Amino acid sequence: MNVPPNFFSDGKRLAIATPIAILATLAFNTLSNLAPPNGINIGQLSNTVLRGVLITPANYAFAIWGLIYVGLIAYGIYQIRPVKQGDETIVRVDQLLILACIAQIIWVYLFTSQQFWASVPVMLVILGSLVQIYLQLGIGRVRVDRRRRWMVHIPFSVYLGWISVATIVNIASALHSSGWDGTILGAESWTAVMIVVATAIAMVVVWQREDAAFMLVFIWADLAIAARQPDVQKIWGTAAVGAIALVIGLSVRQIKQKRN
Questions:
Q1: How many secondary structure helices (H) and strands (E) does the chain include?
Q2: pLDDT for residue 54 is more than 60
Q3: What is the mean pLDDT of residues 67-96?
Q4: Is 0.85 surpassed by the pTM of this model?
Q5: Displacement of CA 204 from its chain's centroid (Å)
Q6: 151/168 Cα distance (integer angstroms)
Q7: How sure is the predictor about 4, in pLDDT bands with cuts at 50, 70 and 90?
């Protein structure tokens, strides 16, 4: 008696399911902006209910989702052939990406429903899935051809970078919804600390893997945070210094790499 293959281990089925999951997530996110389930979309929440979340980037920063989805669609096209050829790494990436897509749809619903604390563990599922994809692909450590770099590595570097930023903002939003004001440090100082921590995370990744795409996302976020808080010197100053530090860090890393 033949045992039917598990759906999530069947490469051919995954090759079809992956672009469907990507497009479904894109469609749900688009609808959540145009006709949010609870009458207010994420951007409107950021400008009203969550206006006091000082680490939220300026509205223009969220345009990066367009780039993320272009990259994911490119990956959806790319992965069909390697999966059919039995590339186990791509099979595993597909499994994790489908999980991330499902989690993202759930997250959008929870966040727009203003269930901020419930959305945090779902965001962590997205983050964890992308971290596993990043490690599976060996981004920054494994040499690949140009096609795989642009259609696989760079899209996931950008996606992980932005979700890393979004996770920090998500937790800050949940804390804000509970009335937390940064305790002894105060909201401004606590926001500055979070910016420093985020910049340090990006610096570690850049130094260990020389991943320019990942770093550029953090620079984008730092500059957008500074742009949103032009009147709060402690925040825009910390964000601006963080962006400059990342540029210097990447430059030094690339010079060192060329010398080696």
A1: 11, 0
A2: yes
A3: 90
A4: yes
A5: 17
A6: 27
A7: very low
Is residue 2 assigned to a domain?
A: no
The C-alpha angle 256, 209, 104, rounded to 5 degrees, equals 150
R_g (Cα) of the chain, nearest Å: 19
1 found inside a domain: no
| Residues 6 or more apart whose Cβ sits within 8 Å of residue 24 | 101, 105
Among 134, 191, 135, residue whose Cα is nearest residue 168 = 191
In a domain, 176, yes or no: yes
And the tokens for 254?
């690339």
DSSP state string for 200-211? HHHHHHHHHH--
Q: What proportion of the chain, given as a percentage, has pLDDT over 90?
A: 68
Tell which wins on pLDDT, 81 or 95. 95
pLDDT score, position 36: 84
- DSSP 8-state class, residue 249: H
Nearest-5° angle of CA 88, CA 92, CA 95? Answer: 140
Domain hosting residue 131, numbered range: 7-259
Number of domains in the chain: 1
* 243: in domain: yes
Q: Round to whole Å and give the CA distance between 28 and 224.
A: 25
| 3-class state of residue 152 by DSSP | helix
First vs last C-alpha separation in the chain:
57
What are the two backbone dihedrals, phi and then psi, of residue 178, each rounded to the nearest 5 degrees? -95, 0
Integer Cα distance of 131 and 129 in angstroms: 6
> What is the spatial distance between Cα 198 and Cα 242, in angstroms, rounded to a whole number?
9
